[in-house]
Amino acid sequence: MKWMIALLTMILVAGCATAPTPTEHRGFTGTWALNFEHSESVRDAVKRVFTASGSVDSPGAREQLSDRLENVLRPSELIRVEQMGPKLTFSDGSGMVRVVYTNGQVPKKKLAGAVVYTWNGERLTFDLSSAETGAMKETYELEDAGTQLISTTELVLTRLPQPLVIRRVYDKAM
């Protein structure tokens, strides 16, 4: 009986400690334009991964992988972020819409695979995992006094010798 009470107490304490509180993230709100000059391309990131690992790939294999990943990880030229109460909506020109809640509420529409998002101060991280595709982490954070939105994508695939990390910079559109 004592172990049961201890277990219930731990669950209640853990639940209270991790329960998010409503927070405003107005700095994310607005339209953000991709800064091509300060953003990394998928092709450059793939080249860096293979060069850093010392991996020797077959002729054309790196190019094939780069082509495939460029289609999947093509950056949006514009990102629009809107906030209505605790609801934060990310949308882009391709029709992709992501909804997150600053109060921990779970969005009604679910994506394929497991999607978990977390706030760490003013940093928003999406963790996406799927048995078929591997794992991907996308992080959004503000820099340069809130005039730049930094998007960092980390992709873990069995075909890559190490995680692929791509950093993109978006400037606040006027």
Descriptive account of the structure:
The protein is α+β, with helices and mostly antiparallel strands and 174 residues long. The protein is built from 3 helices and 9 strands. It has helices at residues 2-18, 42-53, 61-72, and strands spanning 30-34, 78-84, 87-92, 97-101, 114-120, 123-130, 134-143, 148-156, 164-172. α2 packs across α3 (61-72). The radius of gyration is 19 Å and the shape is globular. Residues 1-22 have low confidence and may be disordered.
What's the topology here?
Blueprint: H1 2-18, E1 30-34, H2 42-53, H3 61-72, E2 78-84, E3 87-92, E4 97-101, E5 114-120, E6 123-130, E7 134-143, E8 148-156, E9 164-172
Antiparallel strand pairs: 1-2, 1-9, 2-3, 3-4, 5-6, 6-7, 7-8, 8-9
Helix pairs in contact: 2-3
Radius of gyration over C-alpha positions, nearest whole angstrom: 19 Å
Give the beta-strand count. 9
Largest sheet: spatial strand order: 4-3-2-1-9-8-7-6-5
Q: Between the first and last Cα atoms, what is the distance in angstroms?
A: 63 Å
Q: Which H/E pattern describes the elements?
A: HEHHEEEEEEEE
Nearest-integer average pLDDT: 74
Overall shape: it is globular
Largest sheet entry: 9 strands, antiparallel
Portion of residues within helices? 10-25%
Spans with pLDDT under 50 lasting ≥5 residues? 1-22
Annotation field: number of helices: 3
> Could you say which structural class the secondary elements and strand pairing correspond to?
alpha+beta
Relative strand content: 35-45%
